[in-house]
Amino acid sequence: MFELDGRTALVTGAGQGVGTGIAVALARQGAVVAVNDIVAERAAETVASITEAGGTAYALPFDVTDRTAVASEVRAFERRVAPFDILVNNAGNGGAEGFRPTKFRDTEPADWQRFADVNLFGVMNTTRAVLDGMCARRHGRIITIASGAGITGASFGISLYGAAKGGAIAFTRHLAMENARDGITANTLALGLMDPAASGRTASVTTEMAKGIPVGRLGRPEDIGATCVFLASREAEWITGQTWQLNGGAPTS
């Protein structure tokens, strides 16, 4: 079950953390994986780890916020290697300037734009680049990695991030309905607190917050990778337009 042999996947932001976990999991199940990252060296590192394990992967660095670059790189890859059957929209967070919790009244309009650019419009850019081909072939799996911040309010300054992630959730839901008859499924994963060590960051406030998670730990890249494998598989063809909360039980839905 859940074999992905003969499928080709694009995973954005896959040079580290959750993205790497997703790319590795898809490759392990037989998919050819295009590893995207804004930093070419990070993409190459993920490709090396996949190929060393016997999988097939290619580095495909570009900035998801650059619509022209996204379209060009996707077209070139599909001509050179294979058309995409699977898209995982994982790239996100705070954009090039990083993510520092700030309450809305202390933000500037420039901050509003960068959060939307990467977390919402980046999703639209990559989706648009692969969607026509998927519809023409009457098969596609689109998975958007969002956040619980797009569903549940919080008091500690993540309104811009939450707004953009909430937009990505709503976009994916409508996308699913528009393209269901063309053999496309589109679903969202709303992630809870993830282990910062997976992205090479030191322990932060999330470590203390993890004590309140029912299962007793932070999320790991492999948790997300396993769910993406399922949603990308033939066995999940009747699941679309859904938002799955992966959060260790905090909160339940």
UniProtKB/TrEMBL annotation:
<dbReference type="InterPro" id="IPR036291">
    <property type="entry name" value="NAD(P)-bd_dom_sf"/>
</dbReference>
<comment type="similarity">
    <text>Belongs to the short-chain dehydrogenases/reductases (SDR) family.</text>
</comment>
<dbReference type="InterPro" id="IPR050259">
    <property type="entry name" value="SDR"/>
</dbReference>
<dbReference type="InterPro" id="IPR002347">
    <property type="entry name" value="SDR_fam"/>
</dbReference>
<dbReference type="Pfam" id="PF13561">
    <property type="entry name" value="adh_short_C2"/>
</dbReference>
<protein>
    <submittedName>
        <fullName>SDR family oxidoreductase</fullName>
    </submittedName>
</protein>
